[in-house]
Write a structure and sequence with these properties.
single chain, alpha/beta, ABC transporter transmembrane region fold, Rossmann fold, 2 domains, 4-stranded antiparallel beta sheet, 10 strands
Length: about 550
C-alpha cells in the first residue's frame, strides 16, 4: 500500500478548503481514543476495588455511578464523532460530484460527442459516492482504529506484557497475511465490476433514451434477459468482494475469543490464582475493547484495496479543487462577428470549408442548405462549441475570443430541445426567480399562457414529456428570449408549428430589434421574414457558402 500516493489522492479529493475540517475531525477522534483508554483504566480500577476488602459499599456505589456516567459520556462522544465523520464525508462527496461535473463542462464539445453520457453520469453520481464510502471512509477508519489499537495495546504491554504482546503478534501476522492474499484478488474483482457497471449504465441509458421504439418493440423480454446477463457480470464480483471482507472479520472475532478462553483455562490449571489475575483482567478488557476496532480495521483494509483503483480513476478525471478559475473579460454586447477563410476538419475529414461570414449586431439571418451541408457546424463555430481548424475568427476585432465570452453572448435552441424535469416557471428562469411581467409577456406572445396555468408551478415531466412537440419548441424559444442574450440561434425550432402559429411566433421574435437572430429553417414563414441569408449550395465536390445580405 503506497502511503504517499494515498495521501496525495486524499489531498486532491478533499481539497485545501476542507483540510481544516479534517484536522478538527482528527482532534475529535483523538479525544475518542482518550475516552477509550481512560475507560479501560477506570473499569480495571473498579474491578480491583470490588475484589478487595478495603472499600465500603457506599464507595463502590459512588464509583459505580461515576463509572456508568463516564462510560455513557464516552458512548455519546463516539456517536458525535461518528456523525461528524459522516457529515465530513458527505460534504466531500458533494465536492467531488461538483468537481467532476465542472471538469466535464471544461471539456470540448467534440470530447463530449466522443464519450458516452451514461458513463459520465455514472462517474459523477455513483463513483463519487463509492469513492467516499469505499476509499475516504475506510482510510479514516484505518487511522482511527489503528490509533485506538495502538493506544490500548500500549497500555496492555505495560500492564500485561506477555498476554497482550502475544495477542498483538498473532493479530499483526494475521492482518498482514489477509491483506497480502486479498489485495490482488480484490483489485481484479474491482476492475471486473467497473467494466460491468459502465456496460450496465450504457444499456439502461440507451433503452430509456429511445422510448418510442422500445414501447413499440414486441420482444421486450429479450431486453430484460440482456439486462439480467449484464447484472450477472456486475453482481458476481460484488458478491465475492463482500465474502472476502466478511470472512476475515468472523475469523478474527472467533480467534480472539478462543485466545481469551484458552488463556483463562490455562491460568486456572497451571498457575496460582494470584499470579495472573491482574494481567488477565487487563488482557480481557483490552481484547474486548480492541475487538470491534480490529474488525473495522480488517474490513477497511479490504474495502480500500477493492476501491483504490476506482479512486485513482476518479482523481485522474478531477480538476484540482484548489485550481484558480481562469479569468476572462466579460462582454454583454458586440458589434461584429467575422469568420475569414474558415474550415473545420475532424482528422482527415473536412466537414466544411470556405467560411467567410460577417454578422453585425441586430442582423436577422436565415441559414439554409441540404442536410449535412455544414449548417450545424457553422452554428457550432459561432457558439464556440468547436474551433476552426483553419482560418480566423474575430469578435469586434479581437481574434479567437475565449469560448466563455461567446457563451455569454449566445443562446442556442436546437430542434431537439433539452428540457429538465422542472416547473415551467423554473425552466424559463433557469432555476432562478423570474421577472413575472417579462415571464408572462413572453409566454402570452408565444401562445403559452394556458400552459402556464396548468404547469407554471408543476413538473413538465422528464424532458418535457407532458408537452406536445410544438409546445416543447415554444418553451425552448421562450427560455432563449427570457435569457436575453445578444445572439439567438434557432435550429429548425419552428418546424413543429402550424403556419399560423409559426407566423405569430416569428413576428414576435423579429420584434427584438436589438437582438441578432440566426435561424436554420426551411419554412416559408422564415424565408419570407429573414431577408439576409447564408446558403450552403451544393457543387460537384461539396458545398459553396453563398452570403446574400
Amino acid at each position: 500500500m503506497n502511503i504517499r500516493a494515498i495521501i496525495k489522492d486524499i489531498s486532491t479529493l478533499t481539497g485545501a478548503s476542507r483540510r481544516s475540517e479534517l484536522i478538527r475531525l482528527g482532534f475529535i477522534h483523538f479525544f475518542s481514543v482518550v475516552f477509550e483508554l481512560t475507560t479501560i483504566v477506570c473499569v480495571f480500577l473498579f474491578v480491583r476495588m470490588i475484589v478487595t476488602d478495603d472499600v465500603t459499599r457506599d464507595e463502590i456505589a459512588y464509583f459505580s455511578v461515576g463509572l456508568i456516567t463516564y462510560i455513557l459520556l464516552g458512548a455519546f462522544f463516539r456517536v458525535y464523532s461518528t456523525k461528524k465523520t459522516f457529515d465530513f464525508s458527505m460534504q466531500v462527496e458533494k465536492s467531488i460530484s461538483a468537481n467532476l461535473m465542472e471538469s466535464y463542462f471544461s471539456k470540448s464539445y467534440i470530447w463530449h460527442k466522443k464519450n458516452n453520457s451514461a458513463e459520465l453520469g455514472k462517474t459523477i453520481l455513483q463513483d463519487a459516492s463509492q469513492v467516499v464510502s469505499g476509499y475516504i471512509l475506510p482510510i479514516l477508519t484505518i487511522l482511527i482504529s489503528t490509533s485506538v489499537i495502538v493506544a490500548l495495546g500500549g497500555v496492555g504491554l505495560v500492564l500485561a506484557p506477555s498476554l497482550v504482546g502475544g495477542f498483538f503478534v498473532l493479530l499483526i501476522t494475521f492482518i498482514t497475511l489477509i491483506s497480502l492474499i486479498n489485495r490482488p484478488i480484490l483489485k481484479s474483482l474491482s476492475r471486473l465490476k467497473e467494466k460491468a457497471a459502465k456496460h450496465r449504465y450504457r444499456f439502461v441509458s440507451d433503452v430509456f433514451n429511445n422510448r418510442p421504439e422500445i414501447y413499440l418493440e414486441s420482444n421486450k423480454s429479450a431486453l430484460i434477459n440482456d439486462l439480467g446477463d449484464i447484472n450477472d457480470g456486475y453482481c458476481m464480483p460484488q458478491s465475492k468482494y463482500l465474502t472476502l471482507v466478511s470472512v476475515p472479520l468472523q475469523f478474527i472475532e472467533t480467534m480472539l475469543l478462543l485466545i481469551i478462553v484458552t488463556v483463562v483455562v490455562a491460568n486456572a490449571i497451571l498457575f496460582e490464582e494470584s499470579q495472573l489475575t491482574d494481567q488477565l483482567i487487563i488482557a480481557v478488557l483490552i481484547v474486548v475493547r480492541i475487538l470491534p476496532h480490529v474488525n473495522r480495521l480488517s474490513g477497511a483494509i479490504s474495502t480500500l484495496n477493492y476501491f483504490q483503483g476506482l479512486a485513482k480513476d476518479v482523481v485522474s478525471k478531477m480538476r484540482t479543487l484548489d485550481d484558480v478559475a481562469v479569468k476572462y473579460s466579460s462582454i454583454s454586447d458586440f458589434g461584429r462577428l467575422s469568420i475569414v477563410n474558415g474550415s473545420v476538419s475532424i482528422g482527415e475529414n473536412v466537414i466544411v470549408k470556405g467560411l467567410n461570414v460577417t454578422i453585425n449586431s441586430g442582423d436577422k439571418i436565415l441559414i439554409s442548405g441540404d442536410s449535412g451541408s455544414g449548417k450545424s457546424t457553422l452554428v457550432e463555430v459561432i457558439t464556440g462549441l468547436i474551433d476552426l481548424s483553419k482560418g480566423e475568427f474575430y469578435l469586434d476585432g479581437v481574434e479567437k475570443p475565449r469560448n466563455e465570452v461567446l457563451k455569454e453572448l449566445v443562446t442556442y435552441v436546437p430542434q431537439n430541445i433539452f428540457l429538465q424535469d422542472r416547473s415551467l416557471r423554473e425552466l424559463i428562469g433557469d432555476g432562478k426567480a423570474v421577472d413575472e411581467s417579462r415571464y408572462i409577456e413572453i409566454l402570452s406572445a408565444l401562445d403559452l399562457a394556458d400552459l402556464n396555468g396548468s404547469l407554471g408551478d408543476k413538473s413538465i415531466g422528464e424532458n418535457g414529456n407532458r408537452l406536445s412537440g410544438g409546445q416543447r419548441q415554444r418553451v425552448g424559444i421562450a427560455r432563449a428570449l427570457y435569457r436575453s442574450k445578444q445572439i439567438i440561434i434557432l435550429d429548425e425550432t419552428t418546424s413543429g408549428l402550424d403556419p399560423e402559429l409559426e407566423g405569430k411566433v416569428m413576428n414576435y421574435i423579429m420584434g427584438f430589434k436589438d437582438k441578432t437572430i440566426l435561424m436554420i429553417s426551411h419554412t416559408i414563414a422564415a424565408k419570407g421574414m429573414l431577408s439576409k441569408k447564408i446558403e450552403f449550395v451544393k457543387n460537384a465536390i461539396g458545398y459553396d457558402i453563398v452570403v446574400n445580405y
